[in-house]
TrEMBL record:
Beta-D-galactose binds at residues 174-176, 246. The active site is at residues 174, 306. It comes from Vagococcus xieshaowenii. It catalyses: alpha-D-glucose = beta-D-glucose. GO terms for molecular function: aldose 1-epimerase activity; carbohydrate binding. Pfam families: Aldose_epim. The keyword Isomerase applies. This is Aldose 1-epimerase.
Amino acid sequence: MTITTQTFGNGATLYTLTNKHNVSLSATDLGARIVNWYIPTTQGTKNIVLGFDSSDDYQTIDSYLGATIGRVAGRITNGTFTIDDTEYHVTTQSDQNNNTLHGGPDSFETKIWHTTINDEHNQLIFTYNSSDSENGFPGNLEVQVSYTLTDDNEWLIDYHATTDQATLFNPTNHVYFNLTGNPEETIHEHTLQLASETFAVINKDVTVTGEKRNVGGTPFDFRQPRKIAQIYDTDYEQNVLVGGLDHPFFLEKTDGPQATLTSPTGDIKVEMTTDEEAVVIFSANFGPDKTDESKKLTNFTGITLETQAAPGAIEFDDFGDIILRPNKAFHSKTCFKVQYT
């Protein structure tokens, strides 16, 4: 196992973890984000995640791509929430219908995180201190995110956080998978299997309504493996609202993986397990104008599996609990395991 470093532009550094199978995972301290995940298949080495070649592109094209998201992943309706009878108003974004998305503008994804290298465990440890009132959130929040690449071809994500005041915390990673290795090819022919019987119904502005709907009889039923393309073949109102998937799915506890994503040819498979209660799946419904010059980010060419408490947890009790208090640290783990031929 080895860890190498190189400059990534604008004061950022790119770190690459490599295991004994020559599988490599690259991450940068800009946003504690995943940039590349190279798999040495019999058909050649493939990068199975979307990423840019320098920090400039993340700052100008898409700051969320591959990044650690926080303090709160997803949308906070009207940027307003209440903790212990105190109402807070956090920074909203006009392009999000004046809701707060992913912690608000210039949040975790734009920061240079402190990095510690753990050679023994083939691990990167990113830390960031979010000060009290940053984007309006209460409390000084200390966040640590660890990425480990194992010799079992697992990418392990371990979140840890503490606060000195009651606050909200619901992180995720915003990596986009494309198992073809071609960032210009859509994910429509990928196959998805998901241990989920219910999903959160959304409004037109992608906030949740509070309804949990059974997947049965809907295009969102992935309890058995189904091609992602089938969600585009219907006029189901939830699909039409966002032009694909941008929904929280509530996860079942299983003995095996809770999600399995398989490439169109079946040569690569990614299995996801998590201790979180939900996963937000977004099928890169950017619209036809979302294409950068390098063609590394194009409409429908990636899919996210964002493990987290479901957005809306601060509004609806049965969606989860995202209040973090000073007397209890936050811990969460997610594993993505790749298999390939």
